[in-house]
Each structure stands twice: as structure tokens, then as C-alpha cells.
């Protein structure tokens, strides 16, 4: 049984938000310590507190969505991805993304762009110089989030009266790698599409094969997701290399998705296999 923490309805999360931040930080520390039981326990409490807060601010609802993703990642023994979601949750609630080690390299590219390069995995991608990045260690044979890129998003008050936009959600793109286990790209994508279609909270807008830089085969899926009335949109690009699948995912509020589309397409189109004989 998980402890029950009741949050009173109020105009903001107030004191409950402080408790939530502490619980999430404890969950992150527990995850680093390998105590997944405590991590899951804390996250279930946080999820319940957010649900009972009865708030409709986008950053609160985005946090609930991220907590759900973190719980699933922990259950799948994907610590790196769980940490991505938890750090994003802290940022949604006004905290800071935790410091991280650097594993790939960041180099200046053309004006206004930086290049992330991972010589071990043989990949590179360009991203805007005003976006921040967070990198993660790579562990062969398991699912890994390699790097995340976070936009310099504005608050709802700075954006003005835009329908569907509130709070401080940070649109971001991350690169995830997982073993293909001898399953073809078509079969992997088909399985993902079936999973999305099986949920009433997701609606696919587009899915089709594409080619990345260097005629690298890939498949794109764009779909909407909903969390307690708040709308988000994701763009996912799957591409194979040896025995792995690289998954590039961009997430934003539905109302702002198109604002970032040109930038994100440039990032995705810059993704490159720089060393086809790299570790695999």
C-alpha cells in the first residue's frame, strides 16, 4: 500500500508544490541509489497529489504526464529515461534540471547552431545555440536516453493570450536508443502505431517513411496526446543502425507545436550517422 497524501484545492499548488518537489527529489536520489521501490512509492504519492490538486495549469498537467512516463520507465528498468522525465518534472514545477556529466561533445557549428557529437555511437545532431542540452551515459544492451535538448520556452504570460497555453512547459527533443533485437524497423513502427491507436488519449496525425541525412532510412509518427484536458503533440522519428534503433522525439504543447516545427525539422534533418562502424 502506498501512503495517501491529500492535497487541498487552492488557486495554486502552494505548500503541496513544495512537498511534491521534495518527493520528486527524493525519488531521483532513490533511483540513483538503486532503490526503485522507494522511487515508485514517491511517484505514486506525487501523482495522487497532483490529481487531487484539481489544477488545470498546463505545467501541472504536463508534470502529471511526465510522472506517469517516469513510473513506466522505472517499471521497465530504464533508469536513464526515468531521470529525464523526473528532471523535466522538477523544471515544470519551477525547479532546476540537475547537473549532469558530459559524455558526448558539444562543438560550435554554423552561426546560431551547436553540434552534439557522440563518437562512441557514431552520431551527431545540430541544435540552436539558445537551447540547453543534457547528456546521459550509454549502457549497451539496455534502453538509453542519450541526450535531451530543451528550448528557451516562455511563460504563458509572456506569450500572451494563446488558447491552450499556460504554465511553464518546456518543449524538448531527446534521442533515445534501444536494441532492435532482430526486429525490422517496419515491425517496430507498426507495433508502436498499434499501441498508440489502442489508447483513447492518443490520436495519430501522420505516419510515413522518410529519409534522413545521407539517405538514412527512417519512419516518422506525429500524434496528439491528452492529460486531463491538456493537449500535447509529439513527433517521433525512428531510424536503425546495426542492431539498434535511434528514436528522436520532440514534445510540445499542441498550441505551440507548429511554432517549433521549422527548428525541430532542421535538427532532425541534421541528425547524421558519422561512423557506421561505431559500437553496436
Overall description:
The chain has 2 domains: 14-92, Four Helix Bundle (Hemerythrin (Met), subunit A) (Up-down Bundle), CATH 1.20.120.660; 105-273, Mog1/PsbP, alpha/beta/alpha sandwich (Protein Transport Mog1p, Chain A), CATH 3.40.1000.10. The chain is of the alpha+beta class. It is globular. The chain has a 7-stranded antiparallel sheet, sandwiched between helices. It contains 7 helices and 11 strands. The termini are far apart. A hairpin with a 4-residue loop joins strand 1 and strand 2 (113-118).
CATH class of the largest domain, named: Alpha Beta
Order of helices and strands: HHHHEEEEEHEHEEEEHE
Distance between the termini: 41 Å
Whole-number total of structural domains:
2
Q: List low-confidence stretches.
A: 1-15, 95-103, 155-165
Average pLDDT, to the nearest integer? 77
CATH domain fold name of the largest domain: Protein Transport Mog1p, Chain A
Strand content: 25-35%
> Given the C-alpha coordinates, what overall shape results?
globular
What is the CATH homologous superfamily assignment of the largest domain? Mog1/PsbP, alpha/beta/alpha sandwich
The CATH architecture designation of the largest domain is: 3-Layer(aba) Sandwich
Overall helicity: 25-40%
**Number of DSSP-assigned strands:** 11
Specify the biggest β-sheet.
7 strands, antiparallel
Radius of gyration, in angstroms, nearest whole number: 19 Å
How are the strands of the largest sheet arranged? 4-5-6-10-9-8-7
Structural class: alpha+beta
What's the helix count? 7
